[in-house]
Amino acid sequence: MRDEDAESHYAFQREAMVREQIENRGIRHVALLAALRSVPRHRFVPPSARARAYADSPLEIGYGQTVSQPYIVALMLESILSGPLHRVLEIGTGSGYQTAILALLADEVYTLERIEALAACAADVLRDIGCTNVRWQVGDGSAGWPSAAPFDAIVVSAAGPRVPRPLMEQLSESGRLVMPVGDRYAQELFLIERTAGRWSERALGGCVFVPLIGSEGWPE
Q: By CB count within 10 A, which of 8, 30, 58, 174 is most buried?
């Protein structure tokens, strides 16, 4: 298949993904839907998985990690879009797919990944598709990025036994944090909101994520 034919094929699949998997499940945020239609998800999965890049499921990306199901990415990101996103922190860069979407929704994106090889691969693809407002770091995501705080939103793409206190404290006033919380095998997705120095939480539904490894998460 010629390159232009392949890109046209992927664009068709991407439109179907947004319409059937995301809009049909109630996601309505206009800018988010536009970003999902724009970001080439197939660029963020291994070549062996590209035929399933727009499938309604998570995909393995190596090192025991996955790129989340498109709907779950959309659900998490829509939950943080109730206010301006000047500065966002992402915990768990993974393949960089969600990072690329955030880069279209926020002024600045800070992303942390503990696996150096994944971070390097994601950085290459993000640069290649023109994401110039992303800063990345390799390290313990459960402790956040205190030198860059506060953040208008924090998106945690790995599951912990609880929401790490350092992440909650790195939220700005009116900041939002979304994270899966539970055991290593099943979790509930929670939205945490900070108002006047206090935090409230709301459950968004069940999910299954890879574990959050780190000082404020699970031991390696």
A: 58
pTM for this entry:
0.95
Residues near 103 by beta carbon (within 8 Å), at least 6 away in sequence: 109, 126, 131, 133, 134
Question: Could you give the CA distance from residue 111 to residue 90 in angstroms, rounded to a whole number?
Answer: 5
Question: Is 61 in contact with 95 (CB distance < 8 Å)?
Answer: yes
Q: Are the C-beta atoms of 122 and 113 separated by less than 8 Å?
A: yes
Confidence of residue 4 (pLDDT cuts 50, 70, 90): low
Rounded to whole angstroms, how far apart are CA atoms 101 and 110? 13
* pLDDT tens by residue, 110-120: 999 999 999 99
* 3-state DSSP assignment of residue 59: strand
What are the tens digits of pLDDT across the range 16-49? 999 999 999 999 999 999 999 999 999 999 999 9
Annotated catalytic residues are 68
**What b-and-e string marks burial along 35-70, b requiring 16 or more CB atoms within 10 Å of the CB?**
bbeebbbbbbbeeebbeebbeeebbebeeebbbbbb
